[in-house]
Amino acid sequence: MQCTQDLDFYLSSILIIVGLLFLLRQLTEPAGYGKHVPKKSAPNFILISAKYGWFIQESPSFFVPIFVVLYNQRWDTLGWKMLLVMFCGHYFQRTFIYSAITRGRPTPLYIVILAVIFCSYNGFLQGHCMVHVATYPKNWYTDIRFISGVIVFIIGMAINIHSDHILRKLRKPSEVDYKIPHGGMFNYVSGANFFGEIVEWFGYAIATWSLPGFAFALFTLCSIGPRAYHHHKFYLLEFKHYPRERKALIPFIF
């Protein structure tokens, strides 16, 4: 495993610890945004449009790694280029495409601020690892770790985007009621979009074979995995005829 330089090790360790703490925090109560904004506290929150919120909070993960790379002018192997394209490709879609078409509810401003901090932190960590620490042979794109990681990443990203599309089409722009999603991975789990993103980042971690990559994948699992569980509970309480065979996050298991 690469990226053993002190800075990357410490930053990755912090990311893992924060992820585990976030997991413990969400065991009993979900993070307060989206359908889980506390109704009693909502009037006290400063809310921001979902479109602006997603653009603001996701953009550091796209721009920060690119600035790190351009500043150091490291762009020398095909495998290394593809790893950067994978990471920034996800956040390009989130920043410029998803934010423009989302029909999500307004998000508390403090959630957006916390997300900006995280995305800036993680964007710097992943970019710093690629530029200053990780070394890949010129034929890294033929390595089984790279190939399998890219395949898993693409599958996860496809599930994530398709699931978001299903959720977006559930309601017309003027509608606010929640509906039961059907199709794709939603036939198996309530948190299909979360499942896709978790798979995506574990694929990235395998392809990079780096500590920062695995730290980010673990953080993703700890942060949105419990959210899938709370979504599942919400659906079961909200809809009497919700499909009982569905699991929360992992098909057929959990």
Q: How would you characterize the largest beta sheet?
A: 2 strands, antiparallel
Strand sequence of the main sheet, in spatial order? 1-2
Order of helices and strands: HEHHEHHHH
Domain count: 1
| Radius of gyration using CA atoms only | 18 Å
What separation lies between the terminal Cα atoms? 30 Å
Provide the low-confidence segments as ranges.
none
Q: Decide which structural class fits the backbone.
A: mainly alpha
Give the strand content: under 5%
Number of helices: 7
Quantity of strands, as a count: 2
Mean pLDDT: 89
Query: What coarse outline follows from CA principal-axis ratios?
Result: globular
Percent helix range: 55-70%
Could you explain how this protein is built, in words?
- The chain starts with 5 loop residues before the first helix and ends in a 16-residue tail after the last helix.
- Helices cover 64% and strands 2% of the residues.
- It is built from seven helices and two strands.
- The chain has a two-stranded antiparallel sheet with strand order 1-2.
- Helix 3 runs parallel beside helix 5 (144-168).
- The chain has one domain (6-238).
- With 254 residues, it is an all-alpha fold.
